Target: MFS transporter
Amino acid sequence: MENNAQGAVFGRRLWTLLAVSAAQLLVVLDGTIVNIALPSAQSALGMSDASRQWAITAYALAFGGLLLIGGRVSSALGHRRTFLIGLVGFAASSALGGAAVNPEMLFGARALQGVFAAALAPAGLSLLTTTFTETRERGRAFGVFAAVGAAGSALGLVAGGLLTEYASWRWCLYINVPVALLAVLGTTFVPRDQPVRDAGRLDVPGALLSASGFAAVVYGINEAEPLGWSSAKVLALLGGGVLLLAAFAAVEVRAPRPLLPMRVLLHRARAGAFVSITLMFVAMFGFYLFMSYYTQTILGYSPVQAGLTLIINALAALLGSTLIAGKLHGRVPPVALIVPGLLAAAAGMLILTRLTPDSSHVLPLYLVPALVLTGLGLGCVMPPTAILATADMRGHDIGAASAAYNASQQLGAALGTALLNTLAASATASYLATHRQATPDAASVHGYTTALTVAFAILLAAACLTAALTMTRGRRARTPAAQAPHSDQAEAEAEAAAEAEDGKRPAPRP
Model:
């Protein structure tokens, strides 16, 4: 009887991991797969050059702007129920986008995908947090979850290239339907969870401020690429977004049932997790952009060949998250995985900064080492940061922390793509202006290496900041307490007592 019970528990946990991983693949994959299909979709639907960006931006704005609300909804409805709603909605909106007959229909479908992804992502991470509570099992589960997330962007480029070239751009959206339905089937085996009883009414002012503030910042970052960072429109969007988010923080401090309790962000180790994953995504999404352009414009690879090259990065991320981070969780403090992971990714970027237009044997001497190091680094950073972000969280706070973690990734990806692409373009133009005899390829390589030098510096800064934030509190955060319900007041008092105690004695050994 005992063996049967243990087998049933193991089976439910396995189905939870598989379903959540499939959903994570959908959310991450959709951030890049449409990029490859966009030229074909533009031609088929008659999009203008000015409007085509909305196929990407509509998804990013809806996803990023509604994540915190999605986390609250997940707590109020129950994580499993919200997860199912997100999956079904994501599948339906993907099918709608694949069947689009005009640009407006496609843009609307992409926005709907973002809405359901904003519910799906925090609900999935919350399910993992509440299902896997034992230290070793949690490490393995989050290792698999992170591996899927780390590999998803690279796989999106591969899948986008293959589907666009050999099927149709529409299949870049249709492919989500069977994956989502398989995840729905797996979710039927996931144990039901109870909604948070004291969730209360939605914090409407906080919801409006967070959605509009985050959307303004993401949109401003996206507009910086074509318009430039000094554009009045970009500055207005970024400035307005920052002011709205500042107002959101002020409202949340006073709200009786805040959308994002400030204790989620003010915990030192959790803040370190948010900082490290945000800056890691800034650097990595700039890196993916470089790899796509460099391999196709300089090396002459086809889109499919360029995508397949990134499989090396995806495999390295898989190894880093499962065989290194997953196995070492609970045996070493999170900082011992996060900081080396950031430094490994920085080393990969540094290798590419040595590229010149005349470099020979580029694939074995430059690209493969860089892809392996950045993949291992990403794989070592994602599991411990995801665990730290949700450690010691209970009730509504689980959904809020999960949403904040996903929002950090979204913000980092948007900022990295726009910032590093702008830097590369500016450096290329400057090089051509000062080197009259330079070829376009030489100028482009100079632009790429300049941007990757900045990415290298960002990762070094991330390693320093993360070490400072997580070392003093890493031990406490790495072993989450049992997932028993307790009041928000009790958690706040415990946090205050811990902070006071930390001030009286030497910092514990991480």
Notes: Residues 312 and 368 are 7 Å apart (CA to CA). The chain has two domains: 8-189+259-476, 203-258. Confidence is low (pLDDT under 50) at residues 473-510.
